[in-house]
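Q: How do we represent a protein-ligand complex in a form that can be generated token by token?
A: Start from the inputs.
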Amino acid sequence: MTEATGKINLLGLTQAEMEQFFDSIGEKRFRAGQIMKWIHHFGIDDFDAMSNVSKVLREKLKTCAEIRAPEVVSEDISTDGTRKWVVRVASGSCVETVYIPQGSRGTLCVSSQAGCALDCSFCSTGKQGFNSDLSAAEVIGQVWIANKSFGSVPAKIDRAITNVVMMGMGEPLLNFDNVVAAMKIMMDDLGYGISKRKVTLSTSGVVPMIDKLGEVIDVSLALSLHAPNDALRNQLVPINKKYPLEMLLAACKRYISGLGEKRVLTIEYTLLKDVNDKPEHAEEMIALLKEVPCKINLIPFNPFPHSGYERPSNNAIRRFQDLLHKAGHSVTVRTTRGEDIDAACGQLVGQVMDRTRRSERYIAVRQLSDEANTQRSADQKT
Ligand code: SAH
Ligand code: SF4
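Then emit the structure tokens for the protein with S-adenosyl-L-homocysteine bound:
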């Protein structure tokens, strides 16, 4: 909560934490609601603009607290209305936030970490390695920045952001406390008032944390499945070696049934040409998901340089979708949005200062493959 300035950053405090903060400085708890509304409903980060707070309290707050969102490095708007912000976090790395308008819906895709340690083979964030967890203020700060940029304050009246998905950079369950705090603020009426069904956490499958999540919050859950068997999933999503499919699906079922109402798991499946897009994969998936209340979202692979993967043809995508559909599943294919501003899933490339040195290895592999290609084309010419 406390960052370089030594002041407490009120942006990332949940209602309970804000009340504790006011207690700790000898002020009444109801101040928590007043200040949260200024911050989240009105997008205010200057205590002097808080007209229902006395001058004495404002001066006191200035000495021990601040409201500090991450720095916006750039904002791009795509021809299809998608927006992308690059923001710099305290570690010095940059992460991305993407807004996708769709009819009356507006979905904000939020990052949870700078880089990612999990190294899924088809994900450009994974290729950058890991740098840092985002603080709660840096996670909710992305919502604050986006909301403010629409001028749609108070947030609850003219709502541009109707849904939030934790599907930006990073594995949200590996930054558990900060992500949970930020999601509480998203759902709080004093925050952004978004319903629990419309806040979705996406995970590649950190099993113990799925159970822990169920103990503290009731947001929607999305599972990045990507393969219908352990052998293939071990290659694509390496954390599967630690938490294999049987264990993972059991944890997801526990989470969904713990919500105690008619809610379903979202299954995300990135389609990779000739890797996981064949009819036999669809058949295996149907068997695997037989007992899992879910809807399926197919994501055609979004290419990035030297990934080694390709997007399947439209025919292959349709064939895969049809097979699942015929088995009774609700299946959507995610359309790629914001391609002209590199805002599509898996294309988010911040400027991460890699602590895992994975990006160095990746660059070395890229250089080798470039050299091999150059050699090959030279050979072809001779
Ligand atoms: N770490 C979390 C959330 C972020 S990734 C997770 O893995 O679930 C959001 C989604 O985009 C995941 O399903 C991820 O597997 C998918 N994705 C990653 N790279 C992709 C790419 N190049 N093309 C399409 N989808 C990709
Ligand atoms: Fe990390 Fe998710 Fe990318 Fe895997 S897909 S490397 S878990 S961000």
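The CA atoms of residues 173 and 209 lie 6 Å apart. The chain has twelve helices and 14 strands.
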